[in-house]
Amino acid sequence: MEFIYQFVWIVPFFPFLASILIGSNLLFFPKSTKSLRYIWAIFSIFVLFLVMIFSFAILWQQYIDNTIHRYLWSWIFDKNIDFKIGFLVDPLTSTMLVLITTVGVLVMIYSDSYMSHDQGYVRFFAYLSLFTASMLGLVLSPNLIQIYIFWELVGMCSYLLIGFWFTRPSAANACQKAFITNRIGDFGLLLGILGFYWLTGSFEFETLFKRFNELLINHQVNLYFANLCALLLFLGPIAKSAQFPLHVWLPDAMEGPTPISALIHAATMVAAGIFLIARLFPLFQALPYIMNIISWIGALTALLGASIALVQKDLKKGLAYSTMSQLGYMMLALGIGSYQAGLFHLITHAYSKALLFLGSGSVIHSMESIVGYSPNKCQNMTFMGGLRKFMPITGTTFLIGTFSLCGIPPFACFWSKDAIITDSWLYFPGLGWISSLTAGLTAFYMFRIYFLTFEGCLRSNSTNKMAFINSVPIWGDLQSNNKKLEFISKNLNNNNKLLKNEKCIYPKESDNKMLFTLIILALPTLFIGFLGAPFPEGQSGFDLLSQWLYPIFKNSSEISPGNWLEFGLNAINSLTIVVIGIFFAFILYGPVSFFPQNLDNFFEFLLKKKFNYFFSFLYNWSYFRGYIDFYYDIVFVKGTRLLAQFLLIFDERIIDGIVNGFVILISFGGESTKYLEGGRISSYLFGLILGVILLSYILVVS
Question: For the NADH:quinone oxidoreductase/Mrp antiporter transmembrane domain, which residue ranges apply (predicted)?
Fold first, then answer.
């Protein structure tokens, strides 16, 4: 079946063709295209489904022969330059192809229902097809030039999809923010690519790795310059994968439709940065200083994202900061050399986060009929509560995703996250503490999101008869924590008389298409973690990571099998931290009020012991996003405006002033000298004699 590799070009080409066909017809025949919009949607889904089947065939063939296949064609050929385009298929590529296509197909099916009433329905599917085609082309790229081309296409598609509802000012601002922030990273990536081409003379991965290692061994390269080029390369993934300090675009990207939020956060844009680090792993591993920078950037991003997610009111933004934190875990793993754990977490997190985002979309879709279409209301968790009663399938699947993301066995993310935490402790205790603390915070904010959304009582509906008096405290005003939890609606069974007299609107479960995708995504969230479970030595099993998914320079025989006992002992510590996080979330936000008087006494104790300042600072830190956006606004936005005003004044007063001064001086000189030219010979002789006398006097005096 090796001939299958010769047709790998259809993987990015088919979705790209679908996007071109839909876009062309929408441009030239808008009315007929919109009238046949469901046919175009089915066409997009069918094309990507075929690509998904083909991707599974490639994955199976890779599992059988475990070989690397390259197909290259000359693009620009010259005496000194030979640019090639083509495809590279290896275990990393085949895994990413399956990941992108499976999530992409499910998102498209989900979008068919979610976007059915939107006027831009057909345009949305054109963008989706182009987005998936760009990401598929990126993971198949055999060199840095081709990666950069598709890298920019992914950025362009994210701009189009984040700003899909461009008439909404917040969406227009969000897509511009994402675009500009990523331009910073992309410029650094381009400089890094050119720097390594100057060092090695090649863009091809295998040749680049080989020549660079030879230069290092023979001490023929300046390490400062090599580290600078690698740091510039890393700047691209920092922006694309929302790492500190270029993470600010990711929460605002939630202005786009929820299906695209799932696709961005699971399998496309943010995954591109992690993929690039994994693809260039042999290059980065040869530079220890860069590996340390990668690991610490990842650790700080993980902790920062988790700390900011603690008090978010917006459901999607809470999940967005969760994505930022989990991407930090992946970057941390790659930085400490734990290649397999980082990529495994990319896989498990993709399915878990796609499930959570599509579940949030189901909730938002249901809440819109109650509180309106404003994101400030339909995405606000203070308007939710008790939705599990009305949306049991959505609530159950969301809980499965929550269990997975928190790292609870046997769900998917447990196996990958625990491997990262263990490797972090082995690499450096400081990174181990950060990763463990982040795991506890993750458990707290994820169950906080679940409890506020699906447990308790419904806190709003269209009649406002059962609306809450005050918002649920997101972190808590410690002095009145329980006083604010006053609701008119306490239990639906005790309000039958009210229901008979008033027509209250309650949330409804989503339709079958949306529920189908949630149920399907729940399956890999439950079981895909076992693919990377540490099988005991001497036992056979499909251990995807330790026996197959490895860097292209490393032999799989060098990877040692897992040890259940060691893994279990290491997991106990992380699970303990997770349980503590869940416990605090349950006490503060759970459906059952545990010891309310004692809880008041506990808060009063904190106040008396002057702990209020600490909790106030932590709340403000989380609510105001670590003040980072505030300082960016002062330094970059307002600073740029002040610089522009200064340059405007400098241009008008100084530059134009000098030019205008010369003009005035020349005009005045010309106007003055014209009176000396009267045409009288006596005047000329007088001027000549006067000049000679003055010149003679100067010569005598000197």
Answer: 141-440
